[in-house]
């Protein structure tokens, strides 16, 4: 189970956006897995089972925290601990986290980032495979529309900057096109 620690932690960090919470939940997830290992079906892949336990732990923790007000702006740490750049893909995950529901974001993260099959994502989320396909489709569509709107705004700003009196050039304001998962 130790070899799955980083993947479970990454999943929980993506869900909670708080390193300490993710560390605590990762520890609780593996403690729960150890206690419930007798219920695990060795004929099934271990990682989706661990993600299911992790997701349930995060939901339980969120319910406990609901009584405490959350800050309006929650930071989303880049995995490397460095600032996100347009070339590293982290910006896309940040946008997804802002724009999508927790369930849609989880589906995207599990399928594209953790590379789980649709069947495994469905198992983790407690849904049918067809429902996960729809969830992923809608999430990609929502994210693409949101980013297209943002690109249109950036292009309008660019045109404004290119107006007389502004020194910015188009080459200084190049855009990286969205490559959705």
Any key phrases for this structure?
181 residues, mainly alpha, Rna Polymerase Sigma Factor, Chain: A, Arc Repressor Mutant, subunit A, 2 domains, 62% helix, elongated, disordered C terminus
What would a concise description of this structure say?
With 181 residues, this protein is mainly alpha-helical. The chain has seven helices and no strands.
Notes on the structure:
- Helix 2 crosses helix 3.
- The chain is an all-alpha fold.
- The chain contains 7 helices and no strands.
- The C terminus is likely disordered.
- The protein folds into 2 domains: 65 residues, Rna Polymerase Sigma Factor, Chain: A, CATH 1.10.1740; 78 residues, Orthogonal Bundle (Arc Repressor Mutant, subunit A), CATH 1.10.10.
Radius of gyration: 19 Å
CATH fold type of the largest domain:
Arc Repressor Mutant, subunit A
Shape: elongated
- In helices, the fraction of residues equals 55-70%
Low-pLDDT parts are: 67-85, 166-179
Q: Briefly, what CATH class of the largest domain?
A: Mainly Alpha
The portion of residues forming beta strands comes to under 5%
SSE succession: HHHHHHH
Which second-level CATH architecture of the largest domain applies? Orthogonal Bundle
Q: Label the structural class.
A: mainly alpha
Mean pLDDT: 76
Overall tally of structural domains: 2
Head-to-tail CA distance between termini: 28 Å
Largest sheet: none
How many beta-strand segments? 0
CATH 4th-level superfamily of the largest domain: Winged helix-like DNA-binding domain superfamily/Winged helix DNA-binding domain
The total count of helices amounts to: 7
């Amino acid at each position: 189970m130790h070899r799955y620690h980083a993947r479970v932690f990454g999943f929980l960090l993506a869900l909670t956006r708080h390193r300490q919470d993710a560390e605590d939940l990762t520890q609780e997830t593996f403690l729960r897995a150890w206690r419930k290992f007798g219920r695990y079906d060795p004929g099934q892949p271990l990682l989706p089972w661990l993600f299911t336990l992790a997701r349930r732990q995060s939901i339980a923790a969120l319910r406990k925290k609901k009584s405490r007000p959350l800050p309006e702006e929650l930071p989303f740490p880049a995995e490397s601990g460095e600032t996100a750049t347009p070339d590293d893909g982290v910006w896309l995950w940040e946008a997804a986290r802002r724009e999508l529901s927790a369930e849609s974001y989880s589906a995207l993260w599990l399928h594209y980032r953790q590379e789980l099959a649709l069947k495994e994502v469905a198992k983790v989320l407690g849904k049918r495979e067809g429902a996960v396909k729809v969830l992923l489709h809608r999430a990609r569509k929502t994210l693409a529309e949101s980013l297209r709107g943002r690109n249109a705004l950036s292009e309008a700003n660019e045109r404004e900057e290119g107006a007389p009196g502004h020194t910015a050039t188009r080459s200084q304001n190049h855009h990286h096109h969205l490559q959705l998962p």
